[in-house]
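Note to self: the last two entries modelled the partners one at a time, which told us nothing about the interface. This time every component goes in together.
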Amino acid sequence: MNKREEIELRGRYIGFWIMVCLMIFSSCTRQVIRIVREDSGKSISGEDRSENESMQTGSDDKEKPADIPHQSPTPMQTASLRLTDQARRYLEKKDTESAIRTLERAVSLHPNHGENYFLLAEAWRIKGNREQALEFNRLAELYLKHDRTWMDRIELQRSRIEQNR
Amino acid sequence: MGTPKKKKKRIIFFILGGAFLFGIVLTTLYFWRLSSGIEERFAGRRWRIPSRVFSDTTLIYPGQKINRALFHAKLKNLGYRQTTQGPKTPGEVRIDASGIEMFPNKWNTGGEKEAGGPVRIQFNGKEIESIIRTDTQESIPVLELEPEELMLFFGDEREQRRLISIRQIPDHLIRAVLAAEDNRFYHHPGVDPISVARALWTNIRHGTIRQGGSTITQQLAKNYFLTPERTFSRKILELLFAFTLEFSYRKEEILEIYLNEIYFGQKGSVSINGIGEAADFYFGKPAEQLTIDESAVLAGLIKAPNRFSPYHDPKLCQVRRNQVLKAMVKEGWLSEDDFHQFSSLPIRTAGYRKYGKRAPYFMDFVYEQVSILYPRESLSSLGLSIHTTLDTQVQEAAEEALTRGLERLENRNPRLKRASSEKRLQGGIIVMQPKTGAILAMVGGRNYAESQFNRISHAARQPGSTIKPFVYVSALDELTTTSILSNDPKPYKVGGKVWIPKNYNPVAEKEMSLRWALAQSVNIATVDLAMRTGLDRIVKTLDKFHFSTPQKPYPSLALGSFEVFPLELARAYCAFGADGILPYPLSLREVMDEKGKLLKRKYMTVARCIPPAEAFLVNSMLQTAVLYGTGRHLKGMGITFPVAGKTGTTNAFRDAWFVGYTPEILALVWIGFDNGESVGLTGAEAALPVWADLMKQIPHHLSETWFRMPDDVVERDICSSSRELAVKGKCPSTVKEVFITDRIPDRFCSIHGRNNIRGMADEQKGGN
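The predicted structure of the combined assembly is written out below.
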C-alpha cells in the first residue's frame, strides 16, 4: 500500500467515525426534544406543532365566528362528539384502525360534523392512502368552510397529503 | 456337538426368540404408525370451525329514543341472563319498569377488547335518561354493546364449536370434569387399570358390555379416531390409541383437546361441541366466566348431553349437577359448605336460542362478497369472525313491517291474494345510512323459505316516479325550484311512434313550479323539464349516480321506464341525503381470524357526485312532497319529524315504491308481483305505510333534525301568486324559497310589484 492509498484509507476511516458520531448526536438530540416536549406538553418542531394543533379542538368553539347561530347539540350529536374525542385520542397514538372505526360510527350519528372528516383524512394520510385522505379532506372543507381556523388546518392538511405523493 | 434332542430344543428356542423379536418389531412399528397418525392429525387444524357472521355493534347513549321491545329482544339474542338481584358478572341483566341493569359482556372487535362494568340504563318514557356505572357511579356517554351472532358457515358436519385454551379454563371447571369423568386422570398412563377391572367385572357378570370405564384419554381416542360401535376389538384399539396419546402428549394438552372436542348436546340440527361453545349455548358466557355450579352442570352433561340438558329436563340436570358437586367434595376439591351452597342453587340458563339463519337475504348478499375473499371450504373450517353492518333491531322491524304491510294490503284488497306461494304479492326493503353507505337492514322478499330471490339486490324493476329527482337535479344548474314548467300534454316522437305522457291524476294547472311538479309527481311537467334539460344530460346524471342498468335517452326515461336495481336506487338517493356525496354500499365491515386478529376491513368509501347545494334543493323539494305532495299521508301515520321522500308507481301499477330519508337514515320500500302483474295501487297507498310503520319502530336512528343549509344556499321570500321574488309590503302572501347564491332570480313580483321600490327589491336580492 503506498502513502497515497494509506492517507485515503485513513480519511475514509475518520469520515466513517464522524458520520457515526453525527448520527448518535442527532438521535440523542431528538430524544431530548421528545422528552422536553412530553414534559411541557407542547410541541417544538414546526411540523409536529401543526399536527398537534390540528388535533386540538377543545378551544375551537371559542374561535368560531360569532355569526354562526349556536344550537345545542341533539343527544345523537353529543354521543357522536364523544366518539370524535375518542377517535382523536386513537389518532394521537397513531392507532389509525381504531380511529377510522370510531370515526365511521361518529359520522353515522352526526353526519354534518366536519371534524370527523378532517380526522378521517388525517387517518388516511397516516395510512398513506392519498386518494381517500383527499376525499375526506374535501368533505371536511364542505362542513367547516365558515371557520377560518379550521380552514387553515384543512389547507395545511391538504398540502401535507399532496406532499405524500 | 450336541445331541439331536438338544439341537431340536435350540431350533425351537431360536424360532420362539425370532418370533418374539419379530413381534416386538411389529408392535414397535404399529405404535410408530399410530403415533405418527395421531401427530399428523393433531399437527394441523384439529377441527373444522365454522365461520361466524355477526351484526354490527349497538351504540346506546343518554337522550336516545329506543324501542324497548326490540332492545329487550336484542339482549335475549345476545344471551344475557335474567337475574333477580343486581347483575354481578358479565352477561347478567335485570329489567324493571323504569330501566335495565346489566353487566355488558366483553367483546373483541379488530383487536380491541371492550371491558364492561355493571351499568344502569334509566328510561324516561321511550328515552334513555342516563347510563350510570353502578359500581363507580360514573356517567357513561356512549355504551357500545357486542355484536349479535347471525349465522354460521357450516361444512357437511354441522358442528358448532369455539376453541378455548387450557389456560382460559378455570380450575373448578377442570376439577368438575375430572370428578365427573376421570378422577385419576393425572395418575394413570391413559388407561386406568382399576376402572378397567371394575368395568370388566361388571361386563362379565352381565355377559354384555355395560360399562366402559373409559378414561378421558380413552374417550378422546374413541371420539377422535374410532367409530362409535362397542366391540372388544375396538376397545383394544382404543387402549392402544390411549397409550400412544399419553406417550406423545402432556396431560394438559390431552385435556385441552378433550375439552374442545367433546359433544355437549344439540341445537336443532347443529351439534354443540367443546366446552367453549357449551358455555355459550347453556349459559351465554365465555367458559372462563363459568361459576362452580355452572361448571358442574357442563361436566355432568358429558355423560348423556341431551338427557341431562337443562333445556330438556331441568330437574334431572340439577340432580346430575349435584352428583358432580358431591364427587368434587369426595375428591377434596369442594368444601361441604360450598356443596350445600351450590347444590341448592337453581339452574339459570341463557335461554334456548334456536339456530336459524337470521336476516337471510342480507346473509346471502354478504356471502356474495365474502366468497370472493375466502372459498366456501375456508369459511366452513377456519373459524373466521365476519362482522357486518346489520342492525338487528332495524332488520327485525323491517321484516315485521313488510309482513304486516303485505298482509294488510291483501286483506283490504282480496284480489291481491294468490293461492300459490310462488305467485304471492312480494316486497323488499333496504335501510341505509346515507353518509356512510352502511346497510342496516335488507329484506329481499316476503318469506325466505318460499323464495330466496333477493328482490333488493337482484330484481331489475321500473322505478317509476322515484327516478324523477334525478331528472330535476340535472336541471338545477340552470333552473331554480321556482322555474315554471308546462303541464300541457304534448306528443313526443319516440322511434317513429308518437308518445303522449299522461298524469296519474288530472292536474288543472297548465303551468307549475319545479318544486310543485316534483312534490305532486306530475308526469307531463316532468317530461317537459326532461326535454328542456336534454335527455343525454339526464342519462349522464344517472351514470354519475352509478346506475348499472342501461338508461336510454328516451322521453319516458324521465318517468322511470328503464329498470333499476332497488339497491342501486337506494344508494343513489343516499347522495341526496349526504350532501351530494355518493357512498359505496357497505355490508361487510371486518373479518378476523379465530384468535381475533384482523384479516380484512372494509371502510366507508365516498365519492363526490353532485354539488351539496343541489342536493339540498332536492331534499327541500322532496320535503315538500312529503308535507304537501304525494307523501302527505305520512303525517297522519305518525311521522312528525322532517323527512324527504318520493313515491313511485309504474305503468299499470306494476310497482309501488317509496324512498324516504333523513340526514341519518334512508329506507326504500318496493312492493309488486314477481311476474309483473298489476298491484293496482300507488306507491303512496302500498309502500308508504310500510315505510312509516318501519320508521316508528326504530326511533334510535332518528335525530329528528333537518339537513344543514350549505353556505351557497340562501332563503328568499317569494310571492305566492307570481312565484317571483316578493316585494316587501306589496305581495299579500309570501313563502320562503331556497336558491343557490348564483342562481337567485332577478325578477320581482310582476303582479304586485309593478310600482316596486328599488330599495325593497335590492334588499331581497342582496341577501340577508
